[in-house]
Design a protein that fits this description.
Two copies of one chain form a homodimer.
Chain A lengths: L6 E2 L1 H8 L3 H8 L3 H8 L7 H11 L3 H4 E2 L10
Antiparallel strand pairs in A: 1-2
The structure holds a DNA duplex.
Chain lengths: 76, 76
DNA sequence: CGAGAATGTAGTAGAAGTACTACATTCTCT
DNA sequence: AGAGAATGTAGTACTTCTACTACATTCTCG
């Protein structure tokens, strides 16, 4: 039962940094399609990868991943 | 490549609360042996389960899980 | 328009995580 | 000593995650 939904903010953080999936994937040491799968929510990362992502973006895991939907930032 | 080591403090937190693996497993909605595997480090949990564990213990994920070894609390 | 980069979709294959069962071992506690 | 709880070990089966390849689509910029 690890198939439950985990929401993530990877696209937002990546956009903030202005880096491509390919570059992020390279920095994380994973395949670039893996980042695509994560961003599209096709599955959630392993804990190992989640920790690496949080480490890369220099934020706590909870800032990127959550069991509950994130509040929208822009509501215009 | 999610086979890398993730250190965890589940045994310590569980001991602090004085609950058994069985009870923790029940609270998390997983098999009690799964908790055993995690505590023994046979594998690390999915992100989903890690978030549930952090939620259960009411601490950030980083308090329980880390890519790097935790400092020992008692060094006597 | 044309080229290259970024992203989306689809498929196979293998590694890792979880469930479950059964039994052994250790630990309390009376 | 004996009972019951907690924990460790072993094994099978299934799901999820990751790698990888290939190709389609969209975007950007000359």
């Amino acid at each position: 039962m690890s198939n439950e939904i985990v929401y993530n903010r990877i696209p937002m953080l990546r956009a903030e940094r202005g880096i491509s999936r390919k570059d992020l994937a390279a920095a994380l040491g994973v395949h670039y399609q893996t980042v695509g799968y994560l961003e599209r929510g096709e599955y959630s990362p392993s804990l190992f990868l989640a920790l690496k992502i949080a480490e890369y973006f220099e934020v706590p895991v909870e800032v990127i991943f959550s069991l509950h939907p994130f509040a929208r930032l822009g509501s215009s």
